[in-house]
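Trying the structure run again after the queue cleared.
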Amino acid sequence: MANLTFESAVATIVSMKGEIIQALGETFIMVGLSTTFAVIFGTILGVLLFVTSSHQLHYNKQLNLFLDNLVNLMRAFPFVILMIAMIPVTRAIIGTTIGPVAASLVLSVSGLFYFARLVEQNLREVPKGVIEAASAMGASPMSIICKVLLNEARAGMVSSITVLAIGLLSYSAAAGMIGGGGLGDLAIRYGYYRYQMEVIIFIVAILVLLVILIQGIGNRLARKLDKR
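Done. Tokens:
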């Protein structure tokens, strides 16, 4: 009976290979686009948080307080509620609220504030002596940010990007609830609504393998960039 159940499960998965491949592609689109935009804009926001804080290059108490509270607010915002709240914005920018590209916008917004905090923490780990030495040599603030701060924090930044990508992979499953597609949407439609547990198990296995792959690549790159 167990053998028959296993064969039935395999047959179900094989019959769905086209949908699984499509869902996998949609997940890659969501995670790829959202990670890229979150890293770009999250890095900018994280640098602003750091340089406007006390005893830094461009100390600005009011701006830093505003940015700090904004990041805290957005990080505390439940992702499901954020998805619903951003439906009008997504429709206005993308032209639709359905599909992986539309879902990527919500994922990007959620991810960039999370990544900004990680960037700020990575920059705080850069020794102050390095910054002071660069400043004493006449380096401009932009040079200090790009060639000293971000360069010194690059190993930590790679680790943070790894954490971000894995987090967005998890969120992409919830994005299927608003028509984003992907593996999470497939698991809900077949595994939950049609009670096909083999589909859920198979998709969870794929997600676990993706997490292991992303983490492995991130750890390897971080070790190569770590100068300690």
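The chain is about 80% helix and 0% strand. Worth checking whether this holds up in the mutant runs.
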